[in-house]
């Protein structure tokens, strides 16, 4: 298992930018996927972006494409989400998640919650219009 701690959330005006970070600790050598999810009040949690830590392939939801960039620093075991041109509808609690496995994973690390077993506590992002 890994422990995940998010940071970087805050309040920003529409059109602004934020960079979220997620520091992983524990069995990081077994992390195959890391992803960002978000949940707005009254909504289900949805996948935003995913990163395959072994092969570097990425996944973005339709709402994130063109505005958000996911990246991973292997040396720091830290996942990032650069969010640009933020909109009011991006307001949500953002969660970091990890998929841990003894086996390498070549496939996509997508936005399905069931693919991830470890979760952080979340960081709030509020975008005012």
What is the compact description of this entry?
The protein is an all-beta fold and 129 residues long. It has strands at residues 2-7, 10-13, 18-26, 31-39, 46-52, 58-60, 68-73, 78-83, 92-100, 118-119, 123-128.
Give the tags.
about 130 residues; mainly beta; seven-stranded mixed sheet; four-stranded antiparallel sheet; 11 strands
Question: Can you tell me about this structure?
Answer:
By secondary structure, the protein is mostly beta strands. It has no helices and eleven strands. The chain has strands at residues 2-7, 10-13, 18-26, 31-39, 46-52, 58-60, 68-73, 78-83, 92-100, 118-119, 123-128. 36% of the residues are buried.
Q: Report the mean per-residue pLDDT as an integer.
A: 96
Structural class: mainly beta
Q: What separation lies between the terminal Cα atoms?
A: 39 Å
The proportion of residues in beta strands is: over 45%
Principal-axes geometry comes out as: globular
Summarize the main sheet. 7 strands, mixed
- Radius of gyration, whole Å: 14 Å
**Parts with pLDDT < 50 across at least 5 consecutive residues:** none
| N-to-C SSE string, H for helix and E for strand | EEEEEEEEEEE
Please tally the β strands and state the result: 11
Number of helices: 0
Helix content: under 10%
């Amino acid at each position: 298992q890994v422990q995940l701690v998010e940071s970087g959330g805050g309040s920003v005006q529409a059109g602004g930018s934020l960079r979220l970070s997620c520091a992983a600790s524990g069995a990081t050598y077994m992390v195959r996927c890391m992803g960002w999810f978000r949940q707005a009040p009254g909504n289900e949690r949805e996948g935003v972006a995913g990163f395959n830590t072994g092969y570097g392939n990425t996944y973005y939801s339709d709402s994130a494409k063109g505005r958000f960039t996911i990246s991973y620093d292997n040396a720091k075991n830290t996942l990032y989400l650069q969010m640009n041109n933020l909109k009011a509808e991006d307001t949500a609690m953002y969660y970091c998640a990890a998929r841990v496995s003894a086996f390498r994973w070549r496939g996509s690390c997508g936005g399905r919650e069931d693919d991830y077993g470890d979760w952080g506590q979340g960081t709030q992002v509020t975008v005012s219009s």
